[in-house]
Amino acid sequence: MRIGIDVGGTNTDAVLLDGTDVLAAIKTGTTPDVTSGIVAAVEGLHRQHAFDPAAVRAVMIGTTHFINALVEARRLAPTAAVRLSLPAGSSLPPMVDWPRRLVDAVSGRGYLVHGGHEFDGRHIAELDEAELRRAAEDMGRAGIRSVAITSVFSPVNAEFETRAAEIIAAELPGAAISLSHEIGRIGLLERENATIVNAALRELAAGIVDGLAASVAGAGISAPLYLSQNDGTLMDVDFARRYPVATFASGPTNSMRGAAVLSGLDTCAVVDVGGTTSDVGVLDRGFPREATTEVSVAGIRTNFRMPDVLSVGVGGGSLVRGGPADVAVGPESVGYRLTSKALVFGGDTLTATDIAVAAGRADIGDRSLVAHLDRDLVRAALDRIAAETAEAVERMRTSAEPLPVVAVGGGSVLLPDELAGVGPVRRPENHAVANAIGAAIAQVGGEVDRVYAVEPGRRDAVVDEAKQEAVDRAVAAGARPSTVAVVDFDEVPIPYLPGNATRIRVKAVGDLQVGS
Amino acid sequence: MREITESDLADVARGAAVLGTGGGGDPYIGRLLAAAAVRAHGPVPLVAPAEVPDDALVLTVAMMGAPTVMVEKLPSVDEIATAARTLARYLGRELTHIACAEAGGVNSLIPVAAAAQLGLPLLDADGMGRAFPEIQMVLPTLYGVRATPMAIADDKGNKGVLDTVDNHWAERLARSATIDMGCSAMIASFAMTGGQAREALVPGTLSLCAELGALAASARDDHTDPVDALVRRLGGRRLFTGKVVDVRRRTASGFARGDARLSGMDGDAGAEMVLRFQNEHLVAERDGVVQVSVPDLICVLDRESGEAVTTERLRFGQRVAVIAAPADPRWHTPEGLALAGPRYFGYDHDPVRVSA
Question: Quick one: A383 and A460 in the same domain?
Fold first, then answer.
C-alpha cells in the first residue's frame, strides 16, 4: 500500500492506494503548520479503511507550500548569490531583473568573482580562492545563512562550483549551499535565479520536511517519504531538503498524472475544472508536456521544466450572464464564496454550478432554487462551456491523432460526455483527489542536459552515452533498473560553434523500488 | 520617438524579435544590458538619419558570436563601448553617432547600451531593416561602405582591429577571432560619414521596433489579434497558421540550419508549411510551393500572443502564425540579391516576394 497526499493552498487531500486501486480517499483543510492537516488526513484514511501502518510501503507528498512561500515572499532565508564569471558578466549582477520586494525578502547580496568556463571548456579565469574567502567573510558579517553558487557553463563543467562550495563551506560553516549545475540548465540568469530561489527556501524546506517526516512517523508509518517534483518524478526527503525549488510545478503535474492512472490512459488531454478556471494540459506517454518558453515565477524569470498548461476562465463558480442568444460564462467567478453566492445555496448569483444542477448533471444544494431557469438558457450556457473547453483542448493538441479527454476536479460535471470535434470525455471515479493519486503513483527519474562536442561519426556513441547517464541517474535516485526507460530526448546543434557542439537533453524514468 | 528610455526597452525588444525573422538571438539579454546602461547614464537621444550632419562619424556596433553562448557568458556594457572607442582611436577621429547593423534581435539593443555608455546619440536606423547572419549582409555594402577598419573586443580586455580587403574577409577573420574569444565578442564596424549613413541605412527601424512591440501588447490588452496588428503595420501578409509538427536541425559551416514542418489549423487546416532556416527563416513553402523567400521577411509568431518565436526555440507542438513582410526594396536589386538572395544561401530559385 502507498499513501499519496496533496497539500494545496486550501485543501489537503489524501489517498490510500493498493497498486492503482483506491482503498480510501479524503479531503481535509490545509493547516498553517501543514503537519496537523496531514495527521488529520492520515487519520481520515484510517477511519475509511483500517490499515496496518507497517503495511504502508511509501508515502508521497505533493505540495505547493514552497512556491507559495516565494509568491508571498515569506519565510525566505537571507541569501547570497555568488557568480563565478569575472572578468565577464559584470554589467548584469545577480538578481538584476528581480522584483525589488523579493530581493529585499531574501536580503539578497550578489558577489561577482573570477572563474567560469568558455563554451569549449577553457577557463574564463582561474578561481581566486582569496577572493572567495573575502566574499564569504562579508557574507558572515551580513548574516547570510544560505548561498547560491553559479559558474558560467557549469552544466558543461561544474569544477568551479564544487571548489567554490568547499571554500565557502569552510569559511561559513552551517550555511546551506546550492549549486546551479544541479538545479538548472544552460541560460545563466535563469539558472542562477532558480538557484537563488532554491537557496532562499532551504531553511523553510528543512523545517517542513522535518514536520512531514514527524507527522508520518507519528501515524506509526515507518515507510520512506518522498516529495513529488515538477516533472512528475519523486525525490526523497534528503533531496527535498536540498532542492525545494524542484516542487514548484508539482500541483498541475500530479493532477494530470493522477488523471492518467484513474482513466488508464497515458496519452490524453486532462481538463482540471476548478472553481474559477479550467486548466488543460497534455500527457504524453504518462508525463506532462513541458512549456517551451521561459517561465516567470513571482516575477522571476527561470528555466524550470514546467508543464504546458492552458487556463480558460470557466469553472464551477463562473458567473453566467446574458440570455439564450448571447450567454457568457466567466471569466469572473464567485470563487470560494460559491456556497453563499450560488442560487442553489440560496444566494443571488447565477453560476455555472447552478446551470449544472438545473440540467440534472449535479445534485448540489437545493435543486428547487434553480427550477425556474429558462431551459434554453441552461442549454446555451452548457453549450458555451463545452465550446470553450473544446477550443482549449483543440489548441493543446499537437497532432491530427485523436486525443482522449479526461476531466477531473470538482467542476468537471460542467463538461458534456462528448466534446464536439474532440471526442468523448472520461470522468473517472475519485477524480476529485486526482492530485493525491498523482503523487502516490509518481516514478523516479534521471536527467542529462549538457553541451557535447560531437565528432564526425560519433553521434550515435555520444547519444548512447548521454542516455546511459540519464538511466544511471534514475537508478541512483531509486528506480528499479528493469523499469527504467528514456522518455524524452532532445538534440539541438549550437550555431556558430566549431566541432558540432550539440546540446543534448535526456530524461529517463522508472518505477520506484519500494521495500519488499 | 526622440529618445529611448528604460521603459521603451521592452517594446523595442519585442519588436526587434519580430524583425529578427527567427534569428538575431533572444533580445532579453540585450534589453537588460541597455537598461543597465540607460539607468547609469540616462536616456539615449534618437536621431533620424536625415538630421545627421555630413561630417559625422557613425559606427555600427553589434554582438558577434553564438546567441546560445551569450545567454551563458553575459556580455558587459564596457566591452561594447570598448569596441567603439578602439575603432575611433584607430581612425584618429571623434565618434559622433552610433548605429545598429541589424534591426533584429539582440543587436538592436546592444547599440542602445553603447550609445548610453558613450554619451552619444543613436541613429533611428539600421543596416538591414531585418536580421541576417553575416557581417557583409548590410545595405552599406551596396554603397561601397567597408566593414573595416573594424574593432573587436572581448570580456577579458582583448582588443583587435581588422583592416581587410573586402567585407567577406571581415566576416571570416572576425568569425575566427570571435571563436577564440569564447564565441561571443563585440564589434564596431562600418565607419560612415553622415552622408553615407543617410543614403545607406534603413531609416526609422528602431521606432518601428518600438511601435511593433507596443502594437502587440495593446492588441493583447484589447483582446484583438496581435498577429493581424503586426501584419497590417508591416504591410505584409499572413502566410499560414499551424502547429509545429517536426523540427530538423543540423550544424553546417558554423550555422544552425534546419527546417520546420507545420500542420495547418484554422483556415489552413489540411495544408502544410515547411520553413527553411539558417539562424533566420529563409524560405517558406506551402504544400511544396515557395510562398516567400529571402530577402523578404518571414516571421514566426506565437498564434495567441504575437510574440516572435526564434528558430532555436521552435519546438514540436507550438501553435504559430507565419507572416511575411517586404524587405527594403534595395535588397531586391541584383547586387542586393547577390548578397542575401536565396541563391546565396544555397536555394536554387529566384526570390519570391511577398504580395500584400
Answer: no
CB A235 within 8 A of CB A246: yes
B304 and B248 co-located in one domain: yes
Distance CA B111, CA B123 (A): 9
Tens digits of pLDDT across chain B (356 residues):
789 999 999 999 999 999 999 988 778 899 999 999 999 999 999 999 999 999 999 999 999 887 778 889 999 999 999 999 999 999 999 999 999 999 988 899 999 999 999 999 999 999 999 999 888 899 999 999 999 999 999 999 999 999 999 888 998 999 899 989 988 899 999 999 999 999 999 999 999 999 999 998 888 778 788 999 999 999 999 999 998 888 887 755 556 678 999 999 888 989 999 999 988 999 999 999 999 999 999 999 998 889 999 887 787 777 899 999 999 999 999 999 999 999 999 999 999 999 75
Q: Give the nearest chain A residue to B77 (CA atoms).
A: A91
What's the CA gap between A202 and A286, in Å, rounded? 30
Global ipTM: 0.88
State the residue range of the domain holding A490.
443-510
| pTM given for the model | 0.86
- Does residue A331 have a cis bond before it (omega within 30 degrees)? yes
**Residues of chain A neighbouring B17 (CB-CB closer than 8 A):** none
> Which residue of A87, A88, A187 is in closest CB contact with B71?
A187
Give the minimum alpha-carbon distance from A108 to chain B in angstroms, rounded to a whole number: 18
Instruction: For residues B164 and B241, state if they share a domain.
Output: no
Q: Do A115 and A180 share a domain, yes or no?
A: yes
A188 contact B CB<8A: yes
What is the CATH number for B124?
Answer: 3.40.1610.10
Among candidate residues A101, A99, A107, A109, the one with its CA nearest the CA of residue A136:
A109
Q: Does A89 touch chain B (CB under 8 A)?
A: yes
In DSSP notation, B175-239 reads HHHHHHTTSEEEEEEEEEEHHHHHHHSEETHHHHHHHHHHHHHHHHHTTS-HHHHHHHHHT-EEE
Residues A467, A505 within the same domain: yes
What does the DSSP assignment read for A9-38? Answer: SSEEEEEEEETTEEEEEEEEEPPTTSHHHH
CB-CB under 8 Å, B255 with A500: no
Count the domains in chain B. Answer: 2
Q: Is B67 on the interface with A (CB under 8 A)?
A: yes
* CB-based contact A119 B319, cutoff 8 Å: no
User: What's the total number of domains in chain A?
Assistant: 3
Confirm or reject contact between B68 and chain A (CB < 8 A).
Answer: yes
